[in-house]
Amino acid sequence: NMSRAIIRKIINTSKAPAAIGAYSQAVQVDNTLYISGQLGLCPEKMDFVSDDVSEQAKQALTNMKHILEAAGSSFNNVVKCTVLLKDIKDFGKVNDVYSQFLQAPFPARAAYECANLPKYGLVEIEAVAMVGEITDH
What's the CA gap between 129 and 102, in Å, rounded? Predict the structure, then answer.
């Protein structure tokens, strides 16, 4: 049996909000990075940047950017996103902000309306990314 060890690495950066529970900001397994749901929390104050969904989305994606960078990755390497919304009517506003961070070729994505999000946030975004050089075909 020539089985090889699978490497698991916990990613943590002070530039994104600290995990507020039994989870990590991100977990890298070999070349795959699983990023926990990011809220629009300011990492210094652990409070929402504003009551505006666009501002919360921008902060959530800024937090995600810092986590990606801490893992040696970037938005270019994101292959799947999940967007959770307090109100699905905010989808257009969040999509406008999202397109400032993610460009073509776009990752796969799902979006859902939720009854509630942690700390009563308006938007939460999680992602799966690859670490390393990606060749598009």
Answer: 12
Q: Identify which of 12, 15, 74 has the alpha carbon closest to the alpha carbon of residue 41.
A: 15
All residue ranges of the chain with pLDDT < 50 are none
Alpha-carbon gap, residue 100 to 102, rounded angstroms? 6
- Residue 106 is which amino acid? F
Whole-number pLDDT of residue 1? 62
Which DSSP category does 136 fall into? -
User: Rounded to an integer, what distance in angstroms lies between the CA atom of residue 98 and that of residue 3?
Assistant: 40
3-state SS of 34-60 is EEEEECCEECCCCEECCCCHHHHHHHH
The structure tokens listed for 11 are 């990613």
Q: Tell me, what amino acid is at 41?
A: L
Which pLDDT does position 136 carry in this prediction? 86
Report the DSSP pairing between strands 123-130 and 78-85: antiparallel
Alpha-carbon span 66 to 15, nearest angstrom: 6
Q: Give burial (CB, 10 Å; 0-12/13-18/19+) of 62.
A: middle
